[in-house]
Design brief:
single chain; alpha/beta
């Protein structure tokens, strides 16, 4: 069975051996305050920076999920309000989470085929602490490109730019210097089981969290920062998840090669479905299409039939989500999914739904 579900997604086959190694090496009961664990933390952070091209002066944190990152950023870096640009369900949920804690937060929705005009956006005022975007919207297979993020960053003034890169980090080359905060869960492009997320902060964001000095929560960022200075965490961490992340980062190829490969696969899929007669791309504007999540649309009855017949061929397709739940399906294009799976997928569509 190959799964194209966009999360939790296909894991690297090597994870099976990594899990056995973790058990044999005693990581499942390793003390998280000992030198062995702090060595693992140091090694994992360095592997992450090397493989993903993260600037050396940026700070890495580990949390439980991207959803936790939403809450932590509101608690620790948003004393007043945040401004949220979103085109899909996860960007909107982030806005709703933030608004529940900071009622003054502002949301700005835009269409899935739209690249927002940065010059025309209602710029956040001096009371805005964070501007929040979802770089790759998993719910509708859209993506914001580097040029947009750069233009937005250059117009923000004192506000920090926070980027949810959950379904693109480790699969797409991201220009980390063009935002202050990046975060992602590992159950997508990292090819690992759920239960861990990565948050990356710029020196400007670190200076801001130290200035805010918010300590009212167990996962307050300033407390986490102080612990990370000694490669530790404020709470008992997911030692197994961090170990698996270290192993997969060490064994994976350079991100440039991964990025190029995923782009080529995405282009082939989009080209194929551009010519299809029954299922067509959900996103019609090539400038807003994701390279790591491909969305297809069709009548609800057809969508159900495609998913059902795909399962009989050992292919699990992702359901639609939110507004697009009934009339779309999603295909994950993550690094852990082998090329053979995509060949089988295309042959299935050519044979069954040409």
């Amino acid at each position: 069975m190959y799964t194209f579900n966009p999360g939790p997604a296909q894991v690297y086959p090597q994870v099976r051996q990594y899990l056995q190694d973790a058990f044999d090496e005693g990581w499942l009961s390793a003390p998280h305050r000992g030198e062995r664990f702090t060595g693992l933390m140091r090694q994992t952070v360095q592997e992450l920076k090397n493989k993903l091209n993260v600037p050396q002066d940026y700070t890495v944190f580990f949390m439980g999920s991207a959803t936790e990152c939403w809450e932590v950023l509101t608690q620790s870096l948003t004393p007043r309000k945040s401004f949220h640009l979103y085109s899909g369900a996860f960007g909107e949920k982030w806005y709703e989470y933030a608004k529940a804690l900071r009622p003054a937060c502002v949301g700005y929705p835009f269409g899935i085929d739209e690249v927002p005009d940065v010059a025309a956006l209602p710029l956040p005022d001096s009371e805005t602490d964070l501007v929040c975007i979802t770089q790759n919207e998993t719910s509708n297979a859209t993506q914001l490109r580097d040029g947009f993020i750069l233009n937005l960053y250059n117009r923000l003034g004192q506000a920090l730019l926070a980027v949810d890169a959950t379904s693109s980090m480790a699969g797409v080359q991201l220009k980390f210097i063009k935002a202050d905060i990046w975060f992602a869960s590992v159950q997508k492009c990292f090819g690992l089981p759920a239960g861990l997320s990565v948050m990356i902060l710029s020196p400007r964001a670190v200076a801001r969290l130290r200035d805010q000095n918010e300590r009212a929560h167990y996962n307050s960022l300033v407390s986490q920062y102080e612990k990370m200075l000694n490669w530790q965490t404020t709470y008992t961490p997911n030692v197994l998840g961090i170990y698996l992340l270290s192993r997969v980062l060490h064994d994976r190829p350079a991100l440039k090669a991964v990025h190029q490969h995923l782009q080529e696969r995405a282009t082939k899929l989009y080209d194929y479905f551009e010519q299809a007669t029954q299922l067509t791309p959900l996103v019609t504007n090539p400038e807003t299409r994701s390279t790591t999540v491909i969305g297809l649309q069709g009548p609800p009855a057809l969508i159900d039939e495609v998913k059902r017949r795909a399962l009989t061929q050992g292919l699990q397709l992702g359901n639609g989500y939110g507004t697009w739940k009934s009339n779309s399906l999603r295909i994950a294009n993550f690094p852990a999914i082998p090329d053979a799976a995509f060949e089988q997928l295309v042959q299935f569509f050519a044979r069954e739904f040409a």
